[in-house]
Amino acid sequence: MVEDARPANESAPPRAAVGFLRGLSGKLLLLTIVFVMLAEVLIFVPSVANMRIRWLEDRLNTVAAAAVVVDGLQNIELPRAVQRETLMATGTKAIVIRRKDASRMIATVDMPPAIDGEYDIANFTALGAIRDAFDTLLFGGKRVMRVYGPLGESDATIELVMKDGSLRNAMLVYSRNVFLLSIVISLITAALIFLAINRMLIVPIKRLTASMQEFSDEPSSPERVLVPPKGGDELAVAGQHLASMQRELQKTLKQQKSLAELGLAVSKINHDMRNILSSAQLISDRLSDVDDPVVKRFAPTLLRTIDRAVGYTQEVLSYGRTAEAEPRRRFVALRPLVQDVGELLAVDRQSGIEFDVQIRDDIMVDADGEQLFRVVHNICRNAVQALTNHQPEDGRPRMISVSAVRTGSVVTISIEDTGPGMPAKARENLFTAFRGSARSGGTGLGLAIARELVLAHGGTIALVEKPTPGTLFRIELPDRPVRLDAFRAKGRS
């Protein structure tokens, strides 16, 4: 059984927040209220300035109606008592009608107050009106202001002096009403937006989050896989991808569990196999002392084969301990190594398969000889299996060709056969263990091992397309970079 490799002191993954205000729903509701209130503030600023202008215009129009009547009575001055009643009714301190040639005081108090500010209703700017409105709203109430504007359609101007207390009170009432109305609008808008977005976003997100948490608790259970939602929006697509990823992860976990159990069994078997091969190695050493030409011919090959088998068993045990051996690189003659592969595979003319080695004797490869042998052996063994019971249709011989060329610091090795070629299914998972086999019953480990060893040398391996039937693998192995001090020491020696 595969155990959880997470350290005991590692904290568990965080669970979903249960607090309303800490969750997306609460944050969404608060942000909606804040943004609606901000919009109301942006609306309130010009509207309160406009309310102030309208209020002053209404006061001027009211005063102008009374002033026109009095102005029609030429050379008659209103009694002081009537003036006080008029000023009290209009909430002003003085009323004046001005014309180009003359001005007439309609009503005034005994001692006109000092003026704190003047405002022309007919001529103002938007920014100026906003500035004056907030000045009155924040600092007004006891100041005296002079307000004037046109008197109807005539060329006369109506002017009045008044305190701004009534104006400020009216503006405060207006601001309070706007504020209360903004609160109501914000709550209604936030509730509607919250309900809509909560249904479209928050609920599906919570469902995805709950599925991920449940799947992480028990990833091997098929019941933990999310049932993908229907639809084509982003969240539905995310749910479909999550469900697909969970299914693939379950397959991977199941496969890795099987591989772990298989690896344990192989390690046990390999341990006993190593002991058997060690005994065979001791016995084979004595063959070199036998004075027989046939024995002397095959004894070196047999000894090398057993040595390699012992080395493989040791590497399998090391791999089981997750301690992959690093390549022990040195310059190796490539031609004898490839010839040993042919002898080990027993590829000769009697087998009906030709093994053609097109490699010059002077080509040296900077590599681990045993690992490079395994790479070439795995690829050539696959070629032998492909050529067995297969006859090329164009009458060509069944042949495996191995060639190599050095270009600068890179050696390119080509391994070609005249077999049936690689099936399309095998090409899709070419270097994947247990999935890249080209024949029934194969494991696909050979190419996976070859690729891993080539990558450990900093090289590349690839299947090359060719116009004729068969397969062609190309391996490129670079030399190790030379350190400058080592190069100089070699030059001095």
TrEMBL record:
It comes from the Bacteria. GO terms for molecular function: ATP binding; protein histidine kinase activity. It catalyses: ATP + protein L-histidine = ADP + protein N-phospho-L-histidine. It holds the Pfam family HATPase_c. Residues 199-254 form the HAMP domain. The keyword Transferase applies. Residues 268-481 form the Histidine kinase domain. Its EC number is 2.7.13.3. It is an enzyme of class 2 (transferase). Keywords: ATP-binding, Kinase, Membrane, Nucleotide-binding, Phosphoprotein, Transferase, Transmembrane, Transmembrane helix. One of its GO terms (biological process) is signal transduction. The chain crosses the membrane at residues 28-49, 178-197. It is found in: Membrane. GO terms for cellular component: membrane. InterPro entries: 2C_sensor_his_kinase, HAMP_dom, HATPase_C_sf, HATPase_dom, His_kinase_dom, Sig_transdc_His_kin-like_C. This is histidine kinase.
